[in-house]
Amino acid sequence: MNDHLPIDRVHNGSRPYYGRRHSARYLAHKVKESLTTRVSKFICTLILFVLFVVGLIAFILWLSLRPHRPRFHLEEFSFPALAQSNAAPESASIHFNITIRNPNQKVEIHYDSIESTIYYREQAIGTVPLATEAFDQDSKNTTVFYKEISGPSLKVSGQRWIDMQADRTGGSVPFRLEITSVIK
């Protein structure tokens, strides 16, 4: 028995046949075709890379230049007459402190008007303008408003006052402050 692998060889000393033999013209055409394919792929890659970089730059510019809304914060709110059990509703006044922050780096905000309304159980009990005239707020700036609502602009009397006193003895009085503004 023969322990060798069979080899298909012609015993006349020639090399084994592995495939078709191609002419020099055919091989030159094949190389030329692959060179054109490579060049076109390179050009497409270059164009896509340029589009990607331009899109990335446009996205970063859009993120950095778009204006952000101003931020309103209620810093303090007090209703001193409500803390006194024998206070008359006519002498009541509400004090509050609001800060408005312009978070933009290079954008100035113009306010035409700012008005605040205080609600008790979804009923308006007082309205006061925060700014009496239009003003501009510079970038990265905070504006503070200290306001008081009292007298005829504060509509607290009769049953509302009794309800507020009852809520105070219960532990919490539900107020809501709404700020309305026109900005550019």
Automatic annotation (TrEMBL):
Any one biological process term the GO annotation gives:
defense response to other organism
| GO cellular component term of the entry, any | plasmodesma
Q: Which UniProt keywords apply?
A: Membrane, Transmembrane, Transmembrane helix
Q: Name the InterPro entries for this protein.
A: LEA_2 (IPR004864), NDR1-like (IPR044839)
Q: Which residues form the Late embryogenesis abundant protein LEA-2 subgroup domain?
A: 98-180
Say which domain of life the source belongs to. Eukaryota
What's the main place this protein lives?
A: membrane
Q: Which SUPFAM superfamilies match?
A: LEA14-like
Kindly provide the name given to this protein in its UniProt entry: Late embryogenesis abundant protein LEA-2 subgroup domain-containing protein
Protein source organism = Opuntia streptacantha (Prickly pear cactus)
